[in-house]
Amino acid sequence: MLKITWLFAMNLIYIIPKYAAYKGLAAGLLVCLLIIGCGNHAIEKTDSQPNLILISIDTTRKDHCSVYGYERDTTPNLNAFGAQGARFEQAYAPTSTTGPTHATIFTSLYPITHHVLKNGLKLSDEYVTLAEILKTQSYQTAAVISSFVLNAKFGYAQGFEFYDDAFQPEESTVKWKYWEGHRVDGSFDRRADHTTNRAIRWLKKDREQRRPFFMFVHYFDPHAPYTPPDSFLNKLSRKSSLKTQLDKTISKYDDEITFTDQQIGKLLKTLKEVGLRSQTLVVITADHGEGLMQHNHMEHGVNIYDELVRVPLLFSWHNHIPMNRVLNTPVGLIDLAPTILDLLDIKADSWSVQGQSLAEALRGQVPLDPMRPVFLFRRHYNEGTVGHTWVKGKKFGIRVGKWKYIEGFQENTKELFDLENDPNELINLYDNFPKKSLELASKLQEWKQENTRANSNRGQISKEDSSRLRSLGYVE
What does the alpha-carbon distance between residue 411 and residue 416 come to, in Å, rounded to a whole number? Predict the structure, then answer.
């Protein structure tokens, strides 16, 4: 797949050699000046060029956000944000792992296509990203991330002019000097307040005010270990009785979500203070959820039940997206990039994507197809036990309407769930509805055959980087 290039860059390639060769150096310099002048004029911001902020919250279950009805008030700022725009009730990450999901968000390709099948693999520069598309449209592109998992060396910085992935020790909650004989240089993560401060600094000081911008902000805090700041520790549960250690742990997880919500509120407040809120499309989502022992697993990665792949997805843009809009049809984060481009009125017809735009539904113009399939993937595991869960090989899943089917051939598992009557996926109906099971299995097999690509250009990681990732259960 060829990279999309800037129009003025093509002019540099074809015009300068022509003039330099036949009109002399002076003429060549004159053309350069003319091109530069045109370029400056082209990047002046106009009312038709809105801004974009995309926020990704790591490890955040949709049903632990009060904007979606959670009993604890974990997300007061997202509550207000959701009232100003639209929210999807049934949004799915493509997998329950950070790297592959973000690769899908940026490329609108399934993990089995872009081949970032697990953390620590490199997104090939063969694939065009959302940031690269927006950069061709004169957007200034910036990212502030909070985890080594999204380090630039893994390919996620493609298209970003500014990519802040360097963390200071005092900003980190995960600290190692050595792990399994490997030295850890720098820090693994950055806490939400430091991430917000860095994003605000870019907005106020580093941004070129004459250009529209795309800023991606990633928050890591809800990821284990759950270590909210002291001022947030047990903030939500002081009036409740924590009977078990699991209750206490979940309380800390919720506190991490609340802390992150506060920082998102601070970022959005700054956006309003600098006069950019009404002309900025803001999208908030998460890369995956967290088990919290719902299927006998505490964290994520090992399965694709809803607690691990159903995530918040909210859009807000003044006068462009109706307020308090709720969409109940299942959708996927694979749809995020084409939806954003459609809302921004940016055409990228030559960009090969596998998602579809949800923009017309967001605007209230057309309904979504309730029977459109949502496809899910779980990375390969060598045979063994992760936490309390025995794993082997890959798993795949599909949701169509109220039905969800999951299969793991190497684990010899086939599961069918009626999500309307069994939202917690506790009753396997595979044997009860053989026709429906076969129908979904056939659709899943067809999808795998159509979208699986050869394993090419897979990045390699160093032993030291592998040590960092393995310490959080990211690589085998």
Answer: 15
Q: d(Cα 271, Cα 468) in Å, to the nearest integer?
A: 34
Determine the average pLDDT of the residues in 404-422.
97
pLDDT of residue 464: 53
Whether 438 and 403 have beta carbons less than 8 Å apart is answered as no
Q: Is the peptide bond before 312 cis (omega within 30 degrees of 0)?
A: no
Under 8 Å between Cβ of 223 and 96: no
140 in Cβ contact with 133 (< 8 Å)? no
- State both tokens at 141: 């592109």
What distance in Å separates the CA atoms of residue 410 and residue 7, rounded to the nearest whole number?
A: 49
Q: Nearest Cα to 121, choosing from 99, 90, 144? A: 99
DSSP per-residue letters across 336-384: HHHHHHHHTT---TTS--SS---HHHHHTSS---TT--EEEEEEEEEEE
Q: Which of 151, 259, 142 is nearest to 198 (CA)?
A: 142
Alpha-carbon distance of 415 to 399, in angstroms, equals 12
Confidence band, pLDDT 50/70/90 cuts, at residue 172: confident
The burial class, CB within 10 Å (0-12 / 13-18 / 19+), for 218 is buried
Using only C-alpha atoms, what is the Rg of the chain?
A: 23
Average pLDDT, whole number, for the chain?
Answer: 85
The interaxial angle of helices 336-343 and 98-107, nearest 10 deg, is 40
Asked if residues 221 and 188 have their Cβ atoms less than 8 Å apart, the reply is no
Residues in the chain: 476
CB contact set of 432 (below 8 Å; sequence gap of 6+): 416
